[in-house]
């Protein structure tokens, strides 16, 4: 078993105004915590399934030609290789993402 508090995890600055914290992971699952300020759009796809939950703040998510507005309490899911665009629109946005399988590129070097 592994248990921890997000406040005890050192974050990595991934872009201006964005911090990523690797919470817990196993061979098949990974949980990531993001603190993100408004600005920019991340447009990408990856071979991992992904689901997420907006803890606070706001974002716009586009996938499959459809755009939705997300706020606190919103959740989402993507299939493997599903292209998606994520635009943070709210100040102090916090998001939790879960990936399957674990994203090797997010593991500490």
Description:
The protein is mostly beta strands and 109 residues long. The protein has strands at residues 12-15, 18-25, 30-36, 41-44, 49-56, 59-63, 66-70, 75-78, 84-88, 93-100. It has a domain at 6-37 and 46-58 and 71-81 and 91-106: Sandwich (Jelly Rolls), CATH 2.60.120. A hairpin with a 2-residue loop joins strand 6 (59-63) and strand 7.
Strands, helices and their partners?
Layout: E1 12-15, E2 18-25, E3 30-36, E4 41-44, E5 49-56, E6 59-63, E7 66-70, E8 75-78, E9 84-88, E10 93-100
Antiparallel strand pairs: 1-2, 2-3, 3-10, 4-9, 5-8, 5-10, 6-7, 6-9
CATH domain class of the domain at 6-37 and 46-58 and 71-81 and 91-106: Mainly Beta
Tell me the number of strands.
10
Shape descriptor reads: globular
CATH superfamily of the domain at 6-37 and 46-58 and 71-81 and 91-106: Jelly Rolls
Query: What is the structural class?
Result: mainly beta
The end-to-end distance, rounded to whole angstroms, is: 22 Å
Q: Fraction of residues in helices?
A: under 10%
Query: What share of residues are in beta strands?
Result: over 45%
The biggest beta sheet, please? 6 strands, antiparallel
CATH topology of the domain at 6-37 and 46-58 and 71-81 and 91-106: Jelly Rolls
- Kindly provide the radius of gyration, computed on alpha-carbon positions and rounded to a whole number of angstroms: 13 Å
Neighbour order of strands in the largest sheet:
1-2-3-10-5-8
Number of helices: 0
Q: Element order, helices and strands?
A: EEEEEEEEEE
């Amino acid at each position: 078993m592994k248990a921890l508090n997000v406040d005890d995890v050192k974050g990595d600055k991934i872009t201006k105004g964005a911090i990523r914290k690797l919470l817990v992971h196993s061979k098949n699952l990974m949980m990531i915590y993001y603190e993100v300020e408004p600005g920019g759009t991340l447009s990408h796809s990856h071979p991992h399934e992904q689901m997420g939950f907006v803890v606070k703040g706001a974002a716009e998510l586009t996938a499959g030609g459809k755009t939705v507005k997300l706020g606190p309490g919103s959740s989402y899911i993507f299939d493997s290789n599903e292209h998606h665009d994520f635009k943070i629109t709210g100040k102090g946005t916090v998001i939790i993402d879960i990936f399957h399988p674990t994203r090797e590129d997010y593991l500490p070097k």
